[in-house]
Amino acid sequence: MTIAQRLNALCLAMLFSLVATNSFAADAADTADQAEAKTVSVFGEADLKVPAQFKATKPQSGIVEHEFVAKSEKNEEATARVTFMAAGGDIQANISRWKGQFSGGDPEAQKSKEMKVGKWDVHIVDVSGKFQERMGGGPFFGGKTVERENYAMTGAIIVHPEGRKYFVKMVGPAEVVTENRDAFVEMIKSIEK
Description:
Blueprint: H1 3-36, E1 39-42, E2 46-49, E3 55-57, E4 66-71, E5 79-87, H2 91-100, E6 102-103, E7 111-117, E8 120-135, E9 144-159, E10 165-173, H3 174-189
């Protein structure tokens, strides 16, 4: 092997080492950031205290500001997405859109409730059945639709006194959503504190 070939091989090895080190450091930083993310700011005016059992993860969509994973204690394989984002539109239209993403399910379990939490108006929505999950394309257009049997959602629309809206949703297998619903609602109520 010539000196030039040895130098090229050495440079290539150093480059791979640098890329691997940077990738590892970035992963470690992401993990550290996720471990510390215990609150989510709503419009910089109040915080939601995220339950310890919700684990931070990278958002699957660019419109989602924060995302966590909720797990089931009974079934380690089952997880639900917990997403946070500012959004707009009419409250009832958004609730209808959320409900329209599900079909079937127990009619008694499909409900919404409005409450006052400090200065915030909050709408809690529960829906279950067969979930029409859109893969890519965003909430209003395009993308492939995948049907998810026995799914549920607990969602919250948090309304600022000036009318701005913040959406928090937990969507996944019904068993996971049901198991984590109380913790989710307590998180939403923590905006008052």
